[in-house]
Amino acid sequence: MDIFAALQYSFIRRAFIVGSLVALVCSILGVLLVLRRLSLIGDGLAHVTFGSVAIGLLVKQQPSFVAIPVVVASSLGIMKLMQKARLYGDAAIGIVSSLGIAGGIIIASLSGGFNVDLFSFLFGNILSISSAEVVTSGILSVIVLSVVFLFYNEYFSTTFDEEFARISGINVRKINSLLVILTGITVVLTMKVVGIMLTSALLILPAVTALQIAKSFRNTMILSSVSGILSVITGIYSSFLLNLPTGATIVIVNFLFFITAFLSRRAMHISRH
Amino acid sequence: MNANNAGPIVSVANLCFSYGQLEALCEVTFAVEKGDYVGLVGPNGSGKTTLIKIILGLMSSGNGSVSLFGIDPLAFGDRHKLGYLPQKLTNFNPYFPATVREIVSLGLFSKKRFPKRILKGDAELIDEAMSLTGVIDIKDALIGELSGGQQQRVLVARAIVNKPELVILDEPTTALDPEARENFFQVLRELNLNKKVTIILVTHDMASIGKYASKLLYLDKKIIFYGSFENFCLSENMANYFGEFAQHLICHRHN
User: Fold this and answer.
1) The model's pTM
2) Which residues does B contribute to its contact with A (CB < 8 Å)?
3) Ordered DSSP codes for B137-175
4) Does the ipTM exceed 0.90?
């Protein structure tokens, strides 16, 4: 079945739309996070998402609605730990991450377990996405993209040299807080696409793929976006054709893109010398 | 808050600062006038970087008063009047994917309002700064691909692209070879003489300071000397402080 035939199915169209939007947001934020050595914040917040989903299932509310405030608060918690407890990012992420997992396990255990529901959030199921979820994802993606677009140069400046950005009059603390809030929202959005377990892959892999071959900061953003969107579309289509789990296939395609970019850079380097 | 153009560019009075129990600065008082080229020297741990950070508004001034263009540095709003070159980039990532041109453009954001955008007219300013610092031929190279000396010149271009009135440089020549260092000091001299830019340069290079700077500020938690290099060389107090031989060495290299 070719891709146009696949597009006749509404669930495939919805998957392409949401997948592309989430991939675009992840790819752009991913560049900023990877360059700030905060790559694993996605992983940490995904673990918090696990705890939030457990709360949502326990109180029989839409898990995403519970997850967004909890994950955003946790992302700000990571920032505060870094600033006030004098911790490096990895340690602060580790603390919040393990708290999220621990909370989720305790809630799941106390409620007698909701194995099937929780399983679908752990590994994602983009093909089962509803029209309402398409709209919610669309709105949240547009908000995240607009904020990054409006503050693009503030993010560029603080990512390269935070001290100089502060001297330039940029409110670095606000800009950094905004970044982790956007990351929190994005992690919740990503949950449905690749699942909690694989969220950080969508944040990290397109960015590091772009970093292999990019020729400027702007170019990195563009390449990361293209790589992220292409890998999601290719992953969804391949998983549909080969009957594979969609989230995992998206991650594998992302990894193949990274390897291709890495080998291209090596080949260019060898041919130059 | 906007700057007051009359009066000294930088004024520091009775400044004391401690990191916990560790005293970093004690009763520091001096003023930098428009057009001054001040060499700030002193041994390691003498409080030079702390003083610079307080002047720039990166740290609170503790006891004493500090003003930048007549305003408390923490409330200073005219950030485009400042150019700054740090001792080293904090958390510098050698694989950061930014071109020389993009890095230099960062210096323009201090005078831009939200949303901060690089406009067509900015290209001239960026080109001028890159030409002045000799990096225009490598404008499309990635910052991580450059040598330490080239990176330093890119950061100087970033510091001056906004045509600041005051440029503060914190030990900028440590990564440079003698030729690059000489070129670097020539660039600063040109800025000072031709563009009337006020300069505060933190350095260990006493010989170059004597050659180029109009004033010498010797700091060792408190001010040991502040005045012209000639007065420093003639000062009996300084001869007693450093020893005649050391003073002679510094001044001999100057001459």
Assistant:
1) 0.89
2) 56-58, 77, 79, 82, 84, 86, 89-93, 95-99, 102-103, 106-107, 109-110, 112, 114-118, 140, 142, 158
3) GGTTSBGGGS-HHHHHHHHHHHHHTT--SEEEEESTTTT
4) no
